[in-house]
Amino acid sequence: MPELPEVESIVRDLGPHLVGRRIGRVELHKDKLFSAAPGLGLDDLQGKTIRRLWRRGKLTVWELSDGLALVMHLKLAGQLVLHDADGYELGHGGHPVPAWGSALPHKATHVIVWLADGAVLYLTDIRQFARLALMPDGEVERFLAKQRLGPEPLTRRFTAAELGAKLARRSIALKSALLDQSVVGGIGNIYADESLWRARLHPRRVASSLDAGEVARLHRAIRWVLDYALREGVAAVLQGKASPDRAFPYAHGRAGTPCARCGTIIQKEWVGGRGTHFCPRCQPLPAASAAPAEAASLSAVGRA
Ligand SMILES: [Zn+2]
Q1: Rounded distance, CA 201 to CA 192, Å?
Q2: What is the C-alpha to C-alpha distance for residues 249 and 44, in angstroms, rounded to an integer?
Q3: How does DSSP assign 50-98, residue by residue?
Q4: Which residue, among 215, 234, 73, has the nearest Cα to 158 in the 3D structure?
Q5: How many Å apart are CA 285 and CA 263, to the nearest integer?
Q6: How many CB atoms lie within 10 A of CB 96?
């Protein structure tokens, strides 16, 4: 799933190519992906210039001319690829399926934005969960507030004290608490597993059972993991398997291979219906503070 680092890469890599460009025609092949505030529609995108691109949590906000804004959420599997007029790939971001450099449009390409200078932006989503919402720019803050996003983990607003206070109110598995976007904005399955491995905390610890030292460790680990992914390149994980050619991610997608820290075999369990990877030795689970184990549920089938 595109998580904070993947979405941030859209802003950093695609943003410089998109800002200042004017939108021509927009093709929408799956109606459910697009919604608009009353009085607005897909045709209102035509002729607008992209003024600014920024991120909040896993959402990107595209500020357009004439007081409009497009808020985009790539959800589980959305991918954006920008081709110039010659078909050359200028930039990409999001989910790497189909692989970067693949022929586009793909059969799962649901939105095609023709820019006025001949460049084309493709939104491909094999799961069809991506969403685009067009609204007056004055409504963006209210729209984002409704998403109840927690603090941005790479800013000073994200503190160990606040993280600790939020975890203390949750008697669910720690992994599930980290996936709650109102606890921390932008963390998904991969970086939750990585943060817990780095902090040496079991994903099935009850969130409220952490002491102050453990919260501080987790807070540092989240920042380290996200910062690393932004600096060194996002985690290479395909179909739930981490690339054997790279050390990162260390736990996620590594079931059955030795822990990079202690050599114990990394295990996989379902936590909150999500495939969860951890080292049973580095991340012990005290029986007194364990959330119940789960079997892989029907809803979990096919989810990584
Ligand atoms: Zn280990």
Answers
A1: 11
A2: 42
A3: EEEEEEETTEEEEEEGGGEEEEEE-TTTEEEEEE-TTS-EEEEEE--SS
A4: 215
A5: 18
A6: 17
How do the pLDDT tens digits run along the chain, 304 residues long? Answer: 677 888 888 888 889 999 999 999 999 998 999 999 999 999 999 999 999 999 988 899 999 999 999 999 987 788 898 999 888 888 888 888 888 888 889 988 998 999 999 999 998 888 888 899 999 999 999 999 998 888 889 888 899 999 999 999 999 999 999 999 899 988 889 999 999 999 999 999 999 999 999 999 999 999 999 988 888 776 677 667 888 878 889 999 999 999 999 999 999 999 999 999 999 999 999 988 999 888 765 444 444 4
Return d(Cα 237, Cα 96) in angstroms, integer: 9
State the catalytic residue, choosing from 75, 175, 198, 274: 274
Residue 274 annotated to the active site:
yes
Place of tokens 């102050």: 212
- Selecting among 58, 166, 205, 254, the annotated active-site residue is 58
CA–centroid distance, 169 to ligand 1, in Å, is 29
The reported pTM is: 0.80
Residue 175 token pair: 């992994």
